[in-house]
């Protein structure tokens, strides 16, 4: 293992993300032999804990959330020695000075300067303070060795994202900043590029001559859980569309990069976002649907309506569901609608991409089948992970009849235990590979794409909020949005 010794500093180590995702991911990387030989997990939190209490708390979380369930006590004992709880108050300069002493102490013991990876899993309002204090106290002044991972939200709209990026640029170089979008770490999202650019047979068809429409769905059964306060100030457009769905769109629509290399790939993604047609304010109703869930039932269990959720303003005008239509105005995609939808408390958890091809142009079989089903390529991201190509085939038998059939590549069959998104992304950050992270211009451009929608919805009188019962497949208006162009939602959430 030739990985550089690394001091990993987690701001917000007692928070929800650390508990569910970060510690389990680091532990799984450790079990699979991906962590550097020398590393420490400096775990920062505001409340007092003994090392033992904190390590036991992490073990409980690992038992609940780790991908790898079978591990020896010996392995855990090795890992737990790496975890150091540090009581930390972000508002106090003294805390940063102590942290610096700790980091310098680690370097002194190693006899070399370790890489430093700072994970900012803190409320957005603390990002400025933390990054400035890191810089001013000299904790992160080695451009080649020190990196910072930042969690979304990256701002609230375009202006705030520009301001945030400008602030960060005063303290860090862009190459040191890793803006995480965990959807980019999902196996089948990464696979889009392999599939498109690692085969000869699909890319020639990947354009408006052969593709009729594209659908991207991210449906969840969860509600706002205990994040009502955050979510009510955000809504599905900011929480999901601006980042996760836009990033998927970029992967589907981008031009071939000349190399699998971060600048190239990120340039091609920005190109897509720049080509997305901005929707005029007066057309927002025509292109978008926003909705809130009302009470309902999922798996036989009653669920509250959004307005009754804890932390949510009972008169809230925040959307929990969005469906919309985009166009990418470039040579490849001119005229092809990209439909997107995402919602909480839907009937089924499902993230998928459906590429619908155009109808067969010839009349050969018009007397033999009522309706030819156009080819459809489905990329299931989760919970199923597969690529599914539907095509027409001859029905076995004596006469010449046709029926649709499917060809499926299933990830779970060939790799039942694929790493979690956070494992991939944390490993990339440890290795200094930012390909799957978002550059400042990508984030700003993605905000720009939705800017008019934000404005229109905030004005309130422009676009009506509709509702859908918890456990349903969303509002009727979302079906209408597609029907106007003779389309229907093709995945089945
Ligand atoms: C997060 C959103 O970024 O992604 C959450 O803030 C959402 O609201 C989550 O639930 C979905 O992630 P996943 O990996 O469960 O699909």
Could you tell me the number of beta strands?
A: 17
Backbone CA Rg: 24 Å
Structural class: alpha/beta
Biggest sheet overview:
9 strands, mixed
Organism: Epilithonimonas hispanica
Binding site for NADP(+): 12-19, 46, 89-90, 152
Catalytic activity: D-glucose 6-phosphate + NADP(+) = 6-phospho-D-glucono-1,5-lactone + NADPH + H(+)
Pathway: Carbohydrate degradation; pentose phosphate pathway; D-ribulose 5-phosphate from D-glucose 6-phosphate (oxidative stage): step 1/3
Offer a few descriptive terms:
single chain; 493 residues; alpha/beta; 6-stranded parallel β-sheet; 15 helices; 36% helix; 22% strand; binds 6-O-phosphono-beta-D-glucopyranose
What does this protein look like?
The protein is an alpha/beta fold. The protein contains 15 helices and 17 strands. It has helices at 16-31, 51-65, 73-80, 93-110, 127-136, 158-171, 187-197, 228-232, 236-253, 262-275, 284-287, 411-414, 421-431, 440-459, 476-483; strands at residues 6-11, 39-45, 83-87, 115-120, 146-150, 177-179, 211-219, 288-294, 296-298, 301-303, 321-327, 337-343, 350-357, 376-382, 386-394, 402-410, 465-469. The strands form three sheets. A nine-stranded mixed sheet has the order 16-15-14-13-7-12-11-8-17, with helices on both faces. A six-stranded parallel sheet has the order 3-2-1-4-5-6. Strand 9 and strand 10 (301-303) form a beta hairpin. It is globular, with a radius of gyration of 24 Å. It starts with 5 loop residues before the first strand and ends in a 10-residue tail after the last helix. The mean pLDDT is 95. The site of 6-O-phosphono-beta-D-glucopyranose has 4 residues, from loops.
């Amino acid at each position: 293992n030739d990985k550089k010794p690394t001091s990993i500093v987690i701001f917000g180590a007692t928070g929800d993300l650390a508990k569910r995702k970060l510690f389990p991911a680091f532990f799984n990387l450790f079990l699979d032999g991906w962590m550097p030989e020398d590393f420490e997990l400096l775990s920062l939190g505001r409340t007092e804990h003994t090392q033992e209490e904190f390590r036991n708390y992490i073990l409980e979380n690992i038992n609940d959330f780790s991908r790898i369930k079978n591990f020896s006590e010996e392995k855990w004992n090795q890992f737990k020695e790496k975890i150091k709880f540090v009581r930390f108050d972000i508002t106090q300069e003294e805390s940063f000075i102590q942290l610096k002493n700790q980091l310098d102490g680690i370097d002194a013991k190693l006899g070399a300067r370790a890489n430093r990876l700072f994970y900012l899993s803190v409320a957005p309002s603390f990002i400025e303070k933390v990054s400035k204090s890191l810089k001013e106290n000299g904790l992160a002044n080695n451009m080649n060795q020190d990196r910072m991972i930042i969690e979304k939200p990256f701002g609230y709209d375009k202006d705030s994202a520009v301001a945030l990026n400008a602030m960060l640029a005063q303290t860090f170089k862009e190459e040191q900043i890793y803006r995480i979008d965990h959807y980019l770490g999902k196996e089948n999202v990464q696979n889009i590029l392999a599939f498109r650019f690692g085969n000869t047979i699909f890319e020639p068809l990947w354009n408006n001559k052969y593709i009729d429409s594209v659908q991207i769905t991210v449906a969840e059964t969860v509600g706002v859980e205990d994040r009502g306060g955050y979510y009510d100030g955000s809504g599905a457009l900011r929480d999901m569309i601006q980042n996760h769905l836009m990033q998927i769109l970029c992967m589907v629509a981008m031009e071939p990069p000349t190399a699998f290399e971060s600048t190239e790939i990120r340039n091609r993604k920005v190109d897509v976002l720049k080509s997305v047609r901005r929707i005029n304010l007066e057309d927002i109703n025509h292109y978008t649907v926003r909705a809130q869930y009302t009470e309902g039932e999922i798996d036989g269990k009653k669920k509250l309506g959004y307005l009754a959720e804890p932390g949510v303003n009972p008169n809230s005008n925040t959307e929990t569901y969005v469906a919309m239509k985009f166009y990418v105005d470039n040579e490849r995609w001119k005229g092809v609608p990209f439909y997107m939808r995402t919602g909480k408390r839907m009937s089924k958890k499902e993230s998928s991409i459906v590429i619908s091809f155009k109808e067969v142009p010839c009349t050969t079989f018009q007397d033999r089948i009522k309706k030819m089903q156009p080819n459809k390529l489905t990329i299931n991201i989760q919970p199923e992970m597969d690529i599914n190509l539907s095509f027409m085939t001859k029905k076995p038998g004596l006469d010449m009849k046709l029926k649709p059939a499917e060809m499926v590549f299933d990830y779970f069959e060939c790799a039942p235990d694929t790493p979690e998104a956070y494992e991939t992304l944390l490993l990339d950050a440890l290795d200094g590979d930012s390909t799957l992270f978002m550059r400042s211009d990508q984030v700003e451009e993605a905000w720009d794409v939705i800017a008019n929608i934000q404005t229109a919805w905030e004005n309130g009188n422009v676009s009506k909020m509709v509702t859908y019962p918890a456990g349903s497949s969303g509002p009727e208006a979302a079906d209408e949005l597609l029907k106007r162009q003779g389309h229907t939602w093709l995945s089945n959430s």
